[in-house]
Structures are given as C-alpha cells and as structure tokens.
Write a structure and sequence with these properties.
About 45% of the residues lie in helices and about 10% in strands.
C-alpha cells in the first residue's frame, strides 16, 4: 500500500500542494474510491497502536440528513453551541491571533466580500454546513475518555486521510466548524455515548474554476518554528 501511494503522487507534492478546498464539482465519488482513501490512511501513526479514531462517511440521503438537521438547529437556536471544547482559546494571543485574522481576510478578499458586508460573510460561513458542495462528508470521532495524546493521534489520522485523498485525485477541507453541532450530528448518525465528534471533512473533486481554490495561506518561516542544536 505504501509503495502504491507513493507511486500515485510524490509525497512532497502532496504536502505542499494540499489546501483547504472550499468549492467542489457536482461530481459523485464512488464508495470504492472513498474506501481506498481510508484504507491507505488507516496506517497513520498511533501511540500504543490504540488507533483511537472512528470515521463516519455520508453521501446522498445520509449527507442531506446531516445538512437538514444542522439547518433546523440553526433556525431554532442560531446562537447555540453544542461543543464541549472550544476550537480556539477564548483570548487568542500573538502571533496566532494575527495568523487567524489574516487567513479570513485573504479568503474574503478573493471572494470580494468587504468587512462591512456581514451578511455576505455569514453566507460564506454557512457553506461549511453543506460541505462546500462536496458530495461526500466525513465525521471523525473519538472516545471522550481518551487523553490529549490520543486526540493528537486522531489528528494524524485526519491528516493522513487528506494526503491519501490527494493521492487519489480528490480534494478535502477539514472542518472544525461542525464542532458547534456535535450533539445534532451525533443524533443524526445515531452515535453511541463513547463517540465524541471532533470535526468534519468535505471530500470530492475540486472545482478548478473557483477563485477561492486558488487561495494559498502563508506559513511561518522554518526558523520561526524550529530550533536546531548539536549540529
């Protein structure tokens, strides 16, 4: 499997080329392709080989049921938040605050939505909840009794899914926006109590003509994030 994955796409190209895709073609993804992506990704590292992750894949009517349940929740309780853990710290500090602000402004600038157009920006945010038009949605869950270490391992699995998708010609967007609706999603998927929704992921074929898919976020310089000793 490892050799096959490397043959499909050079790993460095996947690392540097992957983006959060926010516009997808109206083109279905067959089950065998999704299975191939997840079959490759399940070899992600796992401390103690616990493999603490679960993933739930929705398309067709199952996907629409999630969208409808989320829409109903938004309409009945627009300010509600079912999340048991905040996505970001309450008061984000530098340099993280500026990085988060910059990516939002970059996105809205490409879309031509000025800061004062709050309705236009809200419409874009709400596109999260139809998977940006992607035909397949994934939800990643973990037993809430797990430690932060296992949540980190879940993150490695999610990234492995994104890279495997690239290798199979698909695009993704990791979506923490879904954490606001963890209980709604859990009910729609009939999840047991030992599965906590962490995030969602949009999966499909990128729309090459969508301006937003040209967006590339900046990364901190290597010397800003790494130190080297003993060389």
């Amino acid at each position: 499997m490892r050799r096959q994955l490397l043959d499909l796409m050079d790993i460095l190209e996947a690392l540097r080329g992957r983006i959060s895709t926010r516009a997808f073609l109206d083109k279905p993804v067959d089950e065998s392709t999704v299975r191939a992506v997840l079959d490759d990704a399940r070899w992600a590292p796992s401390g103690g080989n616990l493999q603490p992750w679960k993933v739930h894949v929705v398309t067709g009517a199952a996907r629409q049921a999630i969208i409808d349940a989320t829409k109903a929740k938004l309409e009945s309780d627009p300010l509600g938040d079912e999340n048991t853990f905040p996505v970001y710290p309450a008061k984000l500090w530098e340099p993280y605050r500026s990085r988060r602000f910059a990516v939002g402004e970059q996105m809205y600038d490409i879309l031509g939505i000025p800061r004062e157009d709050k309705a236009g920006r809200l419409i874009q945010v709400l596109k999260n909840f139809d998977f940006f038009g992607a035909p397949v949605g994934l939800f990643f869950t973990i037993d809430p009794k797990m430690n932060p270490n296992q949540w980190a391992h879940l993150g490695m699995f999610i990234y492995a899914v994104a890279l495997a998708a690239e290798a199979h010609g698909l695009a993704t967007c990791m979506q923490e926006a879904w954490t606001r609706f963890t209980k709604t999603i859990g009910a729609a998927l009939d999840l047991p109590d030992d599965e906590q929704v962490y995030c969602g992921m949009a999966l499909g074929y990128a729309d090459p003509g969508a301006p937003l898919n040209s967006m590339r976020t900046e990364r901190a310089d290597l010397d800003e994030i790494a130190s080297f000793r003993g060389f």
